[in-house]
Amino acid sequence: MLQKNRLRKEAITAGFFLAPYLILMVIFTVFVFGMGAIKSLTDAARLNPGEFIGFDNYIQVLSDDKFWRAVATTFMYMFGAMLVQIPVAFLLANILNTINKRFRGIFRAAFFIPVLVNSIVLAFLFRQLFATDFGMINWFFGVLGMPNNTDWLRSPSLAVPLLVIVSSWQWMGFHAIYFLANLQSIDVTLYEAAKIDGASPVRVLMQITFPMMKSALTFVMVTSAIGCLQLFDLVYMLFPDNGYVGGTARTIVAYIYDESFSQASRYGYASAAGWVAFFIILAISLLQLRFLGLGQSKEQ
Amino acid sequence: MGMQPKTIFQQIFKISGIVLFCTVTLLFLYPLLWLADSSFRPWTEVASTVPFFVEKNPIEAISSYNLKAMTEALIGGEGLTKWNVGLAFINSVWVTIAAILLTIVVCSFAAYAFAYLNFPFKKPVFVIVIATMMLPMTTMVVPYYLLLNTLGLIDNPLGLIIPYAASAFSIFLLRQYFVKVPFSYIESARMEGSSEFRILFSIIMPLARPAIAAMAIIQFRLVWNDFLYPMLILKTQEFFTLPIIIKFMDSKNIDKPYDVIVATGFIAVSVPLIFFLIFQRQFIEGLTGGLKQ
Lengths: 300, 293
Fold this sequence. Notes:
The complex is a heterodimer. By secondary structure, chain A is mostly helical. Chain A is built from 13 helices and no strands. In chain A, helix 1 packs across helix 12. Chain A is flat. In chain B, helix 5 crosses helix 9, helix 9 (168-178) runs antiparallel to helix 12 (209-225) and helix 12 (209-225) packs across helix 16 (280-288). Chain B folds into two domains: 4-66; 85-288, Orthogonal Bundle (MetI-like fold). Chain B has helices at residues 4-39, 43-46, 58-63, 68-74, 85-116, 122-131, 141-150, 157-161, 168-178, 183-191, 196-207, 209-225, 228-233, 242-250, 258-278, 280-288. The termini of chain B are far apart. The chains are: A mainly alpha, B mainly alpha. Chains A and B meet through helix 1, helix 3, helix 4, helix 5 and helix 7 of A and helix 1, helix 5, helix 6, helix 7 and helix 12 of B.
């Protein structure tokens, strides 16, 4: 009886301790997604609560070329960013690992700082660096005797590469430091044993470093993909005239944002687009987790 | 003799590695050096055709440094537009502090319950909380906006602060650390009749300071730099935070105040950098401990 009383008291205390968080969670996640689901089935807009129209919005989203262009842009950006950032970060981490401890701290700080820089300021900075007439990039090309009048910020074909460059500046160093922390946790005796056995560097990389880094690589790949798929701040600020370079740089979130808060303010439609985007991101994450087997490495 | 080619190869590899490395490091730092330089010079000089580090006379360049843009940003002045960046700075500061404190309180309570208290459906509730970490909130801009509107939190700084406390990752991080505290500490405190509330505040939280610091740093970076939701929520200029006022100034097509934008950007970037330089180890450990983009 005493035991039962004690358990009940504990459960009540737990209820009090959890209540603030659970209330916030229900409001700011469950309600938000629920409201999105309800609104997506209506033709709601600004000053119009909306009437039920079934799955019309979803059909419209799925048949809108602009939406699929945004998906294509986002995917290209994601693949580009990951293909540049992860291998280079991995290489930088391996070099960083061999560097004298005294200097390592300085490099580590320099690599880490970009991740603290505000994306809006960053986009403004890169807009100046890539400016056609006074940008440092065109100046540099001029010094090298190469064409120095490239209009970086207004060329549709350069829009996604530019986004990849800017986001690589922001995240590559951080990934490198993350990899470094994991490299340093690999048991040194493994490398010593490999050395005694006369294993080639390539073999050491394939048979020791990669397997030991698997969960770190998986983690960076999954979180990068989720982050890349939600890109907004950079595209919104980087290009002049708010036009996403004639629409070529419009990402999924930018598309949703435009539909929501442009003149038309199609809240119902934008909610449906949000849910479609949600399923796309979920599908990519689940595919990655299955393919890379994070679930397994977590259980170990 | 057989070792010779390998050593040369290694030397070349090492030297090219160092060169590559220093180049990359410089590339990482260059935009920030540009920002620092430009914040203290008239824009007409900044927007010249040569980068600042190759100017013909560096002494002359440095001697043209002044605080005009900074002053205009922070105070305004005669014949200058009042941009109220100073107010935006204060808003950023107090919103960030309030959000961090609220997260610490709300998430410590929840993490304590998950770590030490028994209650029905504990496991499924924890799984649900952790699962919310994976939700891409940016796709739900519209319902989020509509919900805050219903709650009267649009154009209200509270609408900016409160949602940050719903941070599943903070709970995860704190719980990880809390469970490392030996259970005997808690048992003996309970024997002595301490309430759970007291155990949390006088035993667990002091011991979990590193985890709380890591959590605070993650929240600091997030809140200080956040853009999309503040842009939706804040309508009146007096509530603007730094990123929002930068975008606001940048959206002027006529007479865009480049000087002031650069100076504001410098202020916005300096704050996390100063903290980073002081608490370098905590920043790197806290953020690499698991930061989602």
